[in-house]
Amino acid sequence: MTKPLDIIKKKRAEAIGRIIGKGYLSTKRVYVGMATCEIAAGSKEVMEVFREQIRNGVADVYLSQKGCAGRCNLEPTVEVIEEGKIPIKYGKVTPERAREIIERHLKKGEVIEEWIIK
């Protein structure tokens, strides 16, 4: 017979596995603007670039979407938040720029100043 404490321990381990698997404890977070206007500006393609790179080994990154930022002229937007650093918002992000953000910012820690929304 399974003891109640063993059931609780198993459920806890499963929950922790899901939390880690989804990246909730990552030190880097990327939010892609996915409001209707951002989707029209190309954010689905940008989101797919980030998803693909994370699936292919870009480590310690939590990826999610965000709503309208009220900056339609700068869409699609991407926000990068790193533990202990000021959040960076990039504007007019294309799939090509998304790849650069991954290579330069997420992998090497280089903020791409010319694409920042101020």
Describe the 3D structure:
- This protein has 118 residues and is α+β, with helices and mostly antiparallel strands.
- It has one domain (26-115): 3-Layer(aba) Sandwich (Glutaredoxin), CATH 3.40.30.
- 42% of the residues lie in helices and 17% in strands.
- It has helices at residues 4-21, 36-41, 43-55, 95-106; strands at 28-33, 61-66, 78-82, 88-90.
- Strands 2-1-3-4 form a four-stranded mixed β-sheet, covered by helices on one side.
- A hairpin with a 5-residue loop joins strand 3 and strand 4.
- Helix 3 packs across helix 4.
- It is elongated and about 65 Å long.
- The mean pLDDT is 92.
Radius of gyration: 17 Å
| Count of extended strands | 4
**How much helical structure, as a percent, in the residues?**
40-55%
Structural class determined from secondary elements: alpha+beta
CATH fold-type name: Glutaredoxin
What order do the strands of the largest sheet run in, or round the barrel if closed? 2-1-3-4
Question: How many domains comprise the coordinates?
Answer: 1
Any guess at the CATH architecture? 3-Layer(aba) Sandwich
Main sheet?
Answer: 4 strands, mixed
Q: Would you state the CATH class? A: Alpha Beta
